[in-house]
Amino acid sequence: MKTIEITPPYLIFLGTETKKHLAKTGAGLVEWRPELCKGQLSLIDNGVSLGLPDMTLQQAVDAGIKTVLIGTATVGGSIPDSWLDALEEAALLGLDIVAGVHTKLGDIPRLKAAAEKSGSKLIDVRVPPAKIPVGNGKKRTGKRVLMVGTDCAVGKKYSALAMERDMKAMGMNADFRASGQTGIMIAGEGIPIDSVVSDFVSGAAELLSPDNTPDHWDVIEGQGGIFHPGFGAVTFGLLVGSQPDAFVVCLEAGRTHVAGWEDDYELPSIEDVIDRTIAIGSLTNPAIRCVGISVNTANIPEAERKAYLEEIEKRVGLPTVDPLKGGTQRIIERLKAEFPA
Amino acid sequence: MKTIEITPPYLIFLGTETKKHLAKTGAGLVEWRPELCKGQLSLIDNGVSLGLPDMTLQQAVDAGIKTVLIGTATVGGSIPDSWLDALEEAALLGLDIVAGVHTKLGDIPRLKAAAEKSGSKLIDVRVPPAKIPVGNGKKRTGKRVLMVGTDCAVGKKYSALAMERDMKAMGMNADFRASGQTGIMIAGEGIPIDSVVSDFVSGAAELLSPDNTPDHWDVIEGQGGIFHPGFGAVTFGLLVGSQPDAFVVCLEAGRTHVAGWEDDYELPSIEDVIDRTIAIGSLTNPAIRCVGISVNTANIPEAERKAYLEEIEKRVGLPTVDPLKGGTQRIIERLKAEFPA
């Protein structure tokens, strides 16, 4: 697959971070890929912990770790100078370094020189692979389910990860396909679709879910929203290139307006998102259909969750779940019923 | 405007080209912007001519020419070595050089050094301006009409140029807005929308048609097609960012399948394109409407043209013209009727 690829196992690099919510990427890795996270490294005494064994870089190498993953979001998206000694040492020890920050790792001369010396790789998960083709729109083998959202940041990535986990637990052949930087770090591979030049965005989506066996499901992380005034083109290209057989609409309970565009844009209804996704997705897969609704209910009182999900389920007529509070099995049952082996 | 900008008047550079159809960019410039084209330069005796005065580079400088525009499409999209002496001399004389080829001008060391010495600019019209913002979706002043197509290469650019010319002749306040490389060379400014990273494509479209006076029309060159399996995301972003009040559907008479995707994709109907464009365009302009159909009839016998246009006009109920065989006045009359001053 012509995607970014990251070699496990990982040492999660926590730098000088003290706040857990700023180590979200690292926490996501530990949550969704615990088997790949062998250790953590904080540069300070009172730093944040993800509950992994603390290791020096040399200990990481001795333990067979291949990659240092920067697991924190830094203010401004750059790499603090105080981290460079450790990252340079990691590169000199032959460890790959993976980051999703704005500063490119290869633009930092000390790191570039160290990586060249040892032959290790500096991987920026914001940078798409080279030579992505234009989408060809040809039918691929295997099956695909895409997360689509009423908006950005509603839980599309976690819905896809939960579906992958639950599908595997139910004995299905499924793989999460990452289309954004945090998803790529979790999956260990993928393409940052929003960073691809627009002429090639559906071609990138085609690379992300290549031909597969008839029983295999790609569970594809969504991006943006088809009614989003800023990012809709990304959503469109991902939808057309993914040629999904099925999709799940993801939303955040209680959100009424497009986040960041509140003055001008109300959110579309779930029904609007379903209709528009089918209309556009039919171009490359005329049999596309919606199989469920995934709601992030973190922002409403727990006592209201059940009624909230039931109201949507009754109205829309599709299994409606919070993927992190009870799992996605009911959506998967629907998927199996719609697409019998 | 944060777009590519080219300084007139121009010397059209024809290199070693002998075939007129490969000097299409130069011919387009002479056709649509004759007042800006002051001379031509061929490097060979039997080279192609656009009917402009032949000039040496020094004569061009003496005549007040500011920019050398490469007016030919070269095989493979690179710049032949045999052109470099002349282009280097042009840069040393302080002339800007503009090209739309794959090789970046600034990547040719001789040209880069010459331009740095004289302070002239090397402009690649395939390279979008830096720091394009995410689309904000805010309503802008002034009015906009966008060309949309049933496919790529159906005449969207020439339809827009013909509308601009005819609108000006009818006393209206109108400007062609170029979204592709040849259009940018003709307009002298613009943004190559298909080269913009997908996160920013609607933001680029917003830059392309900024706030203007209430009576002003931007006549925006379209890209791709909203039912195109490869380039639809570009079309989507341009549509949403342009927030057009009106649009014109462009097609090529007789074409039945998506060019280059013939095995898999039939063309959508005009009615499908109208409906989908209104559905998507309503996000940023709920009053969007279609005002006409522009048909490139070059591929059908002249005797059939009238009946072909009349059949569409009767079926769709909108003014239907070939913009290069009779003008776009009937579409413009419809535009004026729909949007009275």
UniProtKB/TrEMBL annotation, chains A, B:
Transmembrane segments: none annotated. Residues 49-128 form the D-glutamate N-acetyltransferase-like N-terminal domain. SUPFAM superfamilies: P-loop containing nucleoside triphosphate hydrolases. Pfam families: DUF1611, DUF1611_N. Signal peptide: none annotated. This is DUF1611 domain-containing protein. Residues 134-331 form the D-glutamate N-acetyltransferase-like C-terminal domain.
